[in-house]
Specification:
mainly alpha; binds zinc ion
Length: 82
């Protein structure tokens, strides 16, 4: 990874990407996760579920606008598909 490349990691408690500023997991983060967990999709879903719970708690404290269905879509639905 070059020095110019910022990692696509979540910035808590806003859950925006440190690399590109998009709501995390952004597209590059999703791709990286799919590669990292390509041999174990179940582990990826467990990991994402944990993060989703954390994000849900933090986001609802911030602005009360975190909707469960939105977070499911954002954290899990893309990883289930295939
Ligand atoms: Zn990003």
């Amino acid at each position: 990874m070059s020095r110019a490349t910022r990692p696509h990691l979540p910035m808590r408690p806003l859950w925006l990407c440190r690399g590109c500023g998009a709501p995390w997991p952004c597209q590059p983060a999703r791709l990286a996760l799919l590669v990292e967990y390509r041999a174990d999709r179940t582990a990826l879903l467990i990991y994402l579920s944990t993060l989703m719970a954390e994000a849900g708690a933090q986001l609802s404290q911030l602005n009360g606008s975190a909707v469960a269905e939105d977070l499911t879509e954002r954290f899990l639905t893309w990883a289930r598909a295939r």
